[in-house]
UniProtKB/TrEMBL annotation:
Superkingdom of origin: Bacteria
Keywords in alphabetical order: Aminotransferase, Pyridoxal phosphate, Transferase
Cross-referenced Pfam families: DegT_DnrJ_EryC1
Top-rank EC class of the record's enzyme: transferase
PANTHER family, alphabetized: PROTEIN RV3402C, TRANSAMINASE
Name used for this protein in its record: dTDP-4-amino-4,6-dideoxy-D-glucose aminotransferase VioA
Annotated organism of origin: Citrobacter enshiensis
Keyword Transferase in annotation: yes
Protein family according to the UniProt entry: Belongs to the DegT/DnrJ/EryC1 family.
UniProt-listed Enzyme Commission number(s): 2.6.1.33
Amino acid sequence: MKNIPVTQPFLPELDEFVPYLEKIWDNKWLTNNGPFHQQLEKELCEYLGVEHISLFNNATIALITALQALRINGEVITTPYSFVATSHSILWNGLKPVFVDIDPNTFNIDPKKIEAAITPNTTAIMPVHCYSSPCDVEAIQMIADNYGLRVIYDAAHAFGVNYKDRSILRYGDMSVLSFHATKVFNTFEGGAIICQDAKTKQRIDRLKNFGIADELTVTAPGINGKMSEINAAFGLVQLKHISTAIEQRKKIDSIYREELSTIKGITVPKASEYANSNYSYFPVLIEKEFRLTRDELYEELKNNSILSRKYFYPLISNMPMYRGIESASCENLPFANATSDKVLCLPIFVDLTEDELTLIINRIRG
């Protein structure tokens, strides 16, 4: 039997993509803000309900650039419950990450813990919309306004998510999306920064192109973060199918919720009351009452060709380059550590069949 992966990219028919490749070959414009790059920025703004977006070759470079674009210095408050790119981007800018515990119900940074972590050196907050569930953006913004802090959201999971009928990407000073192959919407590799005004977008666009302002002028120590025309073209094809893809994920999510809710020792997180979801992941918590430990269930599924993922384990704060930071102590992050030890993300992707879904659920039941 073939392996059932945790996720896999949705790939439209090759025939849809070929005309874009032919056009790229004909006009010989491969990168540097080409026509497909410009078209994708325009169409993404329309689909996402935002005004200013800058495409990148990946979301990690976008996170690094977002911090640089806002001239962040000193300390950045963030969550330990994320992919390492979140905190790596802080280190790459020569800044200090300060970890704050999560809300055990949402897996997102707990706003009630943020204020105690603020010091005279704090200049920004970098929360994560984990598994596409929105952070408490209103509480976070109130804290940021009170202390004069910037807010950069790692929105890698949050493509197409609306909070109270408004794009979640419109909150904070910036939001960063990931278009990696495993994401709901992908460009093979890619990412984007959403900002609030044209002047900031101009600075971002220069920073992702080495800081170049014109042929003779370099205004900042930028980086090479440009998205190629091939990646942008693939994004345009993907965008035609995104609504159908999310709807199919929704059906899988619904079946999981119905079937797993009756299994003792399996906790299925509640959906947000105020936001939609893009169903990018399906995390469950394996409690002590379950017949197996989390790691035992992971191995049992793997031995039956079902590839789940301990996402996020280990915590960022427990990795060698971070665990020496005072805020990384387990005592400071009890809920993040507990969640990391229990979480398991189950397979969810457009091409997951009903038979495969039934197999997964039955294996969990035992």
